[in-house]
Amino acid sequence: MRIGVLTGGGDCPGLNAVIRAVVRKGVATYDHEFVGFRDGWRGPLEGLTKPLGIPEVRGILPRGGTILGSSRTNPFKIEGGVEQIKNNLAAQGVDALVAIGGEDTLGVATKLHELGVQVVGVPKTIDNDLGATDYTFGFDTAVNIAMEAIDRLHTTAESHHRTLVVEVMGRHAGWIALHAGLAGGANVILLPERQFDVDQVATYVEKRFQKQYAPIVVVAEGAQPLDGQMVLHNQELDAFGHVRLGGIGQWLAEQLEAKTGKEARTVVLGHIQRGGTPTAFDRVLATRLGLQAIDAVNEGDWGKMVAMQGTDIVRVPLAEATRELKTVPLERYTEAEVFFGS
Ligand code: F6P
């Protein structure tokens, strides 16, 4: 078979490890051929390709980002987009696609599968918010980066007796905030899953100062105050209808400073959380998902997504992955609350 590979949506550490595993096993075990599509769905849409063989995947296991490039292109928003994709796949002699992506990329893969395209999906996102898989690669790396930042922020916050508000990514799921906050010993953790009372946060902060320690507040970019609107930089939507989040950290620091009378500053970790080399956990997960994906392709098991359930790598219908966002359950938040303000 000749198989096309693409990576779509926000990049994350581990994408290259998947590409490497797919190509290495695909060539060595099954004698398949590969072609890389550039920049997510823009590749098959515009016929943008890149050679993808064993030489191209040598040395990429530890590399962050994606050697194929990525984009948030939505072919269903483009007139004649699906036909264009089908024509380009035929022109390239491509029999099947491995689509590596999150909610949006896999949503497109699901629809294309229903329209007859032979596709297998691989879940990725630092947000860890995809259904049907216990973990997505990229998440562990993002959490470790955020944890290390929080560790460093503790020492400088203590020196200056100030509150440090750390805004982390995660979109509408609080997984990064919860795990980084727990691992980094944050004083308060605020998630999109539960609106927060800014007066209560100020009380936690004051309690921490009374104990002669400076508070670290971890806030997810999608968190919202009780009676307010989500704080956004702008209202612009991407091709999948997502608004760009960010700004809650700055808003919160201003509120805390006014309410506690103690200086409060904000650190927005932003894309640092998505950059650089993947952790060992993410490299192993990405590799195992890639190996299972090429097995699925080889067996013609179309319309499936490979997933991690427990410690096993399994296959589930693509549609299951995108049916519903996997958000943080209340009991996980309650678990963390015992540390707030103490
Ligand atoms: O979905 C991954 C993610 O990093 C989110 O956590 C974040 O909201 C978004 O992507 C940022 O996207 P962009 O890189 O397009 O600004």
Structure commentary:
It contains twelve helices and 13 strands. The chain has helices at 15-28, 42-46, 54-57, 81-91, 103-114, 139-160, 175-184, 198-210, 248-260, 280-299, 318-323, 330-337; strands at residues 2-7, 33-37, 49-51, 96-101, 119-123, 163-168, 188-190, 216-220, 232-237, 243-245, 264-268, 304-309, 312-317. Strands 3-2-1-4-5-12-13 form a seven-stranded mixed sheet, with helices on both faces. A four-stranded parallel sheet has the order 7-8-6-11, with helices on both faces. Residues 10, 102, 125-127, 169-171, 221, 244-245, 274 line the site of 6-O-phosphono-beta-D-fructofuranose. 6-O-phosphono-beta-D-fructofuranose binds next to strand 10. Pfam families: PFK. Keywords: Cytoplasm, Glycolysis, Kinase, Magnesium, Metal-binding, Transferase. It catalyses: beta-D-fructose 6-phosphate + diphosphate = beta-D-fructose 1,6-bisphosphate + phosphate + H(+).
The poorly predicted ranges are none
Shape descriptor:
elongated
Q: State mean pLDDT (0 to 100 scale).
A: 96
Approximate strand percentage: 15-25%
Name the helix and strand elements from N-terminus to C-terminus, one letter apiece.
Answer: EHEHEHHEHEHEHEHEEEHEHEEHH
Specify Rg, calculated over alpha carbons: 21 Å
How many strand segments?
Answer: 13
Strand order of the largest sheet: 3-2-1-4-5-12-13
**CA(first)-CA(last) distance:** 59 Å
Site (Important for catalytic activity and substrate specificity): 104
Subunit structure: Homodimer or homotetramer.
Site (Important for catalytic activity): 124
Keywords: Cytoplasm, Glycolysis, Kinase, Magnesium, Metal-binding, Transferase
